[in-house]
Amino acid sequence: MDGKSVSMIHKFNIVTDEIDMLYHQASAKMGFPDSEMRILYMLCDYNAGMSQQDIIDITGMSKQTVNSSVNRMGKAGWITLGERSGHRKEILLTPEGRQVCDAIIRPFMEQEEQIFAGWTREEKQIFLDLNQRYKEALRTMVQAMPRRNQYRSGTDIEVLPETEVLPETVLPENEKSQNGVFR
Fold first, then answer.
1. What is the pLDDT of residue 101?
2. In terms of DSSP bridges, do strands 88-93 and 79-85 run parallel, antiparallel, or are they unpaired?
3. Given this model, what pLDDT does residue 166 score?
4. Could you tell me if 35 and 63 are in contact, meaning their C-beta atoms sit under 8 angstroms apart?
5. What span, in angstroms and rounded, lies between the C-alpha atoms of 46 and 40?
6. Residue 81: helix, strand or coil by DSSP?
7. Nearest alpha-carbon partner for 181 in 40, 24, 25
8. Residue ranges of E strands in the chain
9. Could you list the mean pLDDT of each consecutive 10-residue stretch along the chain, which spans 183 residues?
10. Do 48 and 175 touch, CB atoms closer than 8 A?
11. Smallest Cα–Cα separation from 166: which of 149, 142, 130?
């Protein structure tokens, strides 16, 4: 970069980094670690049980992070594990977890809705369409990337053979987020 112009991706990254930081601050002010906030937000927003693998696939959080968060929330009495299919357990909100969602998460979600309330219908649709297009183009780009060994300073970069790309987790239309998954 020549110092005179800032690329569009740099501007986009600044905005998304700041949004991530604001969600982190919101989580802290509500008294939740980020991972627990994301899981509670998803359970509240999707209004359905989810497996740990569903959460991992949607958020990109590590298995260890999700498992630790689920264990802590289970001990707090906010969630319970029910049968789903096979060996996957469904994470469900308990009555106490619903109270947490109703008292803390839903008011935050309503405030997020107020942000969009100030936008025209056309602006909302453009925002959604552009984010969808960006996500799809990014998915295509990431799927086409060669897999590499972990880079270590002072070593050559080795390209590994292609591995199968897992399909996107697709939720039924009635289970999709109305205002986006908590980032």
1. 96
2. antiparallel
3. 46
4. no
5. 10
6. strand
7. 40
8. 50-51, 79-85, 88-93
9. 73 94 96 96 92 93 96 95 77 96 96 95 96 95 85 64 51 42 38
10. yes
11. 142
Determine the pLDDT at residue 4: 62
d(CA 91, CA 112): 25
Instruction: List the one residue out of 32, 48, 35, 10 whose CA is nearest residue 183.
Output: 35
Take residue 45 and report the two structure tokens written for it: 């927003």
SS3 154: coil
Which pLDDT score, from 0 to 100, does residue 125 have?
A: 96
> Do residues 118 and 97 touch, judged by C-beta distance below 8 A?
no
Q: What is the pTM (predicted TM-score) of this model?
A: 0.75
> What CA–CA distances, in Å, run from 127 to 21, 123, 133, 150, 180?
20, 6, 10, 35, 12
Cα distance between residue 44 and residue 41, in whole Å? 5
* Cα angle value 66/104/170 (rounded, 5°): 45
Q: What contacts 49, CB < 8 A, 6 or more positions away?
A: 43, 82, 84, 90, 91, 92
